[in-house]
Amino acid sequence: MIDLNRRGLVMAAGGVLAAGAVGMPAWANPERKLGYAVVGLGGYGLGRIIPQFKECQHSRLVALVSGDPAKAKKVAAEHGVPERGIYNYQNFDSIRDNPDIDIVYICLPVFMHAEYTIRAAQAGKHVMCEKPMAISVAECEQMIAACRKAGKKLMLGYRSRFEPHNVEAIRLARSGAIGKLRYFRSEHGFTARDPNTWRMKKAQSGGGSLMDIGIYALQAARYMTGEEPVAVFAKETTDRSDPRFREVEDMIDFQLEFPSGVIGSCMSMYSANRNQFVLMGDKGRIELEPATAYSGQRMWVGGERSDKTLVTPPPGPYANQWVGQLDHMAQCVKDNRETIVPGEEGLRDIRIIEAVYRSAREQKRIVLRG
Amino acid sequence: MIDLNRRGLVMAAGGVLAAGAVGMPAWANPERKLGYAVVGLGGYGLGRIIPQFKECQHSRLVALVSGDPAKAKKVAAEHGVPERGIYNYQNFDSIRDNPDIDIVYICLPVFMHAEYTIRAAQAGKHVMCEKPMAISVAECEQMIAACRKAGKKLMLGYRSRFEPHNVEAIRLARSGAIGKLRYFRSEHGFTARDPNTWRMKKAQSGGGSLMDIGIYALQAARYMTGEEPVAVFAKETTDRSDPRFREVEDMIDFQLEFPSGVIGSCMSMYSANRNQFVLMGDKGRIELEPATAYSGQRMWVGGERSDKTLVTPPPGPYANQWVGQLDHMAQCVKDNRETIVPGEEGLRDIRIIEAVYRSAREQKRIVLRG
């Protein structure tokens, strides 16, 4: 006997489901592209995410959520989204009645992540949420609980995990190519220009450069070392007379202590462009610059500065990092396996970020508890 | 009336001393090269300092102090040092009777700096002392007191202060070329290979990579910002099973807080070669790599990574950084003015280094007291 329902697929002993079998739920058909609803037509959702679907093997755009009906209609027409796939923030919850939507991608200002993740899960949809996950650990925990309760996946939009240079750098680090790991350093920043963006309003962003761009350094410190920090120390410096920085930090320098003795040293800023990391082992180093940019990554591997080699990684299975992120989620939903960047991964970063802010505020080393 | 004595030059109102005037002490003759005694014929004294005198305008080598009579005799012969200029550690104090010697250059293991600086001052000689100044703040203070009591100058061998790229970088930073200063980062290290050198014995070196090579990062943080740190935080990581690191640290990462809000972030190590610094302002950055090496300095100045320009500094008045250091001291003695790197400057570094070590040991931020 085969029991099929919306929450999961239970296969009878010895039973094999053919693709497209009668009675199979749509998402379980390996040939079918899963449908995404993109929530938020700001610069990232509209400019970076929506254009990727045409390259995807497992994902397609089926719905849009926007507060601007004219904009939504225009974008829908341009990207082949049917009229029934256009939603606004009032009727958002009716996505539950749209079987085309498998996954909701939250591209909203940070303070809206928790609400829309929870509402999407309650509407019976899987959720991809942009980073940073939320403005607090408490919100992250609520998001994870809501998705778990609904039996839905929650994945974070950490695109660099699907970028071939980063993927290859992780593989090299784990393979022992640079020996025993010793030190990680990353600087991430960009020049923020608009003092009026939600990013500069603490209630909406949760914080400044660290939440926005420094989180790439933190993420990379964790995925490059493969370790979780046990303590942090941080120092912030911000010109509070600058209209951009009335509420959020500009520069913050933080140190991560890893259990093996590896030191992570990171710098985040809103006042200059910087995007690089170096992982040092006792037999060499891996250097990426830019490391987590939208494109143009370059990687050097070698013993010393003078004899390092520019390395071109294998291309990887996806057209680009966004396609990888979108299709990985779709594949994990189809295969009913966990993504490589589930909600817990986003929570870990926010937990560390809260400790970094506390360290800077209290001017002391903060021990992190597992 | 003109009063000339060995302790100083007092010029009567309206009086002008002609070069080589009868009755003028030898050191006051602007045409005369001042005589150096080099103490210690190890790699640095013999390999780096002694060869410089042939390029000097104000300095000459007149004496050697060594525990190896055969070596001393050979080196003396090669460099035109007369027989009467050869000393050992037993008869060192008799340098007081050698009028050729104006300045004693201490190129000894760190634990011997205090003793020989004090004995040289007591013998009536000015002192150039290699960095780090001594193994403790207490020793540094004794050295300064001894030189002050003897009325003799004490200068530290911070050669980078005479290296044209560093000199130009300081000038640019002070000129506002990169705007308001925000952040300084430096990594300094080299691969230490010999577990049996005095550098690896804490009683002789005073510490590990920080005392030896990380001090360049610390010095640069201070001279590039023009500020004194008010607090430090540090984390050390050392593989104590490595025979090189039984007594001294390998890697230490430390953060300096400057009063203006500039953050200094430094890393020191004995396990890889690294020699660079970056000073960031709100309008650009100055980058040197290598920054404080024996040669090959390169400097970039610019707004962002992509539009920075390789800058060749003006050549400066000296043949190289060591010649600058030696001749600056000689000129300051002749002119009876303070050097740009007096004993107090060496003491400041050792005071900060002690706080860095204490921070790493106690795992807390250490406030520095002026």
TrEMBL record, chains A, B:
Residues 169-287 form the GFO/IDH/MocA-like oxidoreductase domain. PROSITE patterns: TAT. It holds the Pfam family GFO_IDH_MocA. InterPro entries: Gfo/Idh/MocA-like_OxRdtase_N (IPR000683), Gfo/Idh/MocA_oxidrdct_glycsds (IPR050463), GFO_IDH_MocA-like_dom (IPR055170), Glc-Fru_OxRdtase_bac (IPR008354), NAD(P)-bd_dom_sf (IPR036291), TAT_signal (IPR006311). Keywords: Membrane, Oxidoreductase, Transmembrane, Transmembrane helix. GO terms for molecular function: nucleotide binding; oxidoreductase activity. Residues 35-158 form the Gfo/Idh/MocA-like oxidoreductase N-terminal domain. The keyword Transmembrane helix applies. The chain crosses the membrane at residues 9-28. This is Glucose-fructose oxidoreductase.
